[in-house]
Amino acid sequence: MEAARAAITCRQRLFPTCYGTELTSNAILKWQQERGVEWHYIAPGKPMQNGFVESFNGRLRDECLNEHLFANLRHARHLIAAWRDDYNHHRPHSSLDGLTPWEYHQRSREDQTLNRANQ
Questions:
Q1: Where do the Integrase catalytic domain residues begin and end (predicted)?
Q2: For the chain, which terminus, N or C, has the lower number of CB atoms within 10 Å?
Q3: pTM score, whole prediction
């Protein structure tokens, strides 16, 4: 549930997923209904229809999961959290014009503040 909350912003109205209704919880369905988000199932065997998530999953798998042997769940959580922090705060992304997600977020907030001040 927390992953879905983090992945979807209030402005996004479509959430593609490759999982069928058997893996959709009542909590997720209630959450998406309250926010007016359309739950869209991609066609079976067509991961290209959800390219952003597939790209992220591939990076996580290649750069973190395939690189480590986890001794236990606590160890896995620690290493994955460190990778996520690097990915979200320190690593430039080509899709964000070479900015880190944190820099992009900050710039977007500054742009919104300037737009409000100019109105």
A1: 1-109
A2: C
A3: 0.54
DSSP 71: S
Q: Are 26 and 2 in contact (CB under 8 A)?
A: no
**What whole-number distance in Å separates Cα of residue 46 and Cα of residue 53?**
12
107, 100 contact by CB (below 8 A): no
> Any long-range contacts for 17-22 (C-beta under 8 Å, 24+ apart)?
17/41, 17/42, 17/50, 18/42, 18/44, 18/47, 18/50
Using an 8 Å Cβ cutoff, are 13 and 38 in contact? yes
Amino acid of residue 38: E
Closest by Cα among 7, 96, 14 to 49: 14
Name, of 7-16, 21-30, 55-64, 69-78, the range with top average pLDDT: 69-78
* Three-class secondary structure of residue 113 per DSSP: helix
Q: What is the pLDDT of residues 53-91, one digit of tens each?
A: 778 888 899 999 999 999 999 999 999 999 999 988 888
The Cα–Cα gap between 44 and 46 comes to 6
